[in-house]
């Protein structure tokens, strides 16, 4: 803003500035007349934003998430919105670069005045904006990462996760090794941040400290993983657990093939979507045969599943009928959960009422595992089910498991799945 001060203009500008400060400082009302203004909320609109890797090293697959969420919002908007308000979703590309993330999140909050940040993606990227979002009292919901950093209700009361945390996932993957691949030499490749570290912690919690023969890390700025894979081959690793984003899952498996190395792959849910990996590998997609992964949402190829039927319909009507994969299922599942939270928050929508609605918990939706939201638990889904690629198709096998971040057991979770409402839109009840 041009803040040049001249005569009466100075007085007018000062009055306008004071009015805006008072309005922004009162976060206790709805967008209705006679109530304090809530950033991003009017009588007819709710503006939320996100940061996503639409380009860069993590864009493979992940670039489809936010458009799928927006497509679900467009579907809800076409059916009347939430309490009469339509959702506007501002999607900002950060290229999976933490410096870019800080820039675009500041724009969303300070310029676009978003009501909340939804499903910001990435452990290294989102970590850098936690304090900024907290200081600006912006709800930070359903972070697209399994870092345990999101589950700090005392330090970050406005932040909630979505993915199963990586330690929970590491325990579940390691439990599969312990029960079905006993005695095999296990090695680990993880991203050089909380993603890799938390996953490894879960693996070692189940298998025991010192049982992972070779531990390697990667950084997304270096696409040469031959040294890491070469170390696994030299050590005669039989099982390799990958805490990798899709591009680096494909790089690892492709590099191993070139080196003549064929272990059993176990892959984090965030890097195990078969359609995404097959697209990355192209003619070499057969290398994915036998890959074991984790997931906690309906399988993208399960045409009989009512959630997949709903999301396929939304994808055709509002997402240009994009090639359907797990990233689209994920994005629409996030959208469904956010609409649930808005419904519970009620007509008099405030940032505080939204956070109270999420902390209240009790949400049910597409997930196979339980959502763990409460005042004292801001993590997301609490478990996973294992998948395997067989005959070029990814499918679930075995039960769904749940566990904690500590020394609790990995146990079966048997609650029945729920089905979506007839119109595909959640209600407050």
Give structural notes.
The protein is α/β, with parallel strands linked by helices and 429 residues long. Among the domains are: 45-164 and 332-381, Response regulator (Rossmann fold), CATH 3.40.50; 167-295, Response regulator (Rossmann fold, 3-Layer(aba) Sandwich). 38% of the residues lie in helices and 17% in strands. It contains 14 helices and 13 strands. It has helices at residues 7-25, 59-62, 65-78, 98-111, 123-127, 130-135, 166-180, 194-207, 226-234, 246-258, 274-281, 306-318, 326-345, 351-360, and strands spanning 45-52, 86-93, 116-118, 140-143, 159-161, 186-191, 212-218, 239-243, 264-267, 292-295, 383-390, 393-402, 411-413. The strands form 2 sheets. The protein has an 8-stranded mixed sheet with strand order 7-6-8-9-10-11-12-13, sandwiched between helices. The protein has a 5-stranded parallel sheet with strand order 2-1-3-4-5, sandwiched between helices. The radius of gyration is 22 Å and the shape is globular.
Index terms:
17% strand, alpha/beta, single chain, eight-stranded mixed sheet, Rossmann fold, 13 strands, 38% helix, 14 helices, five-stranded parallel sheet, 429 residues
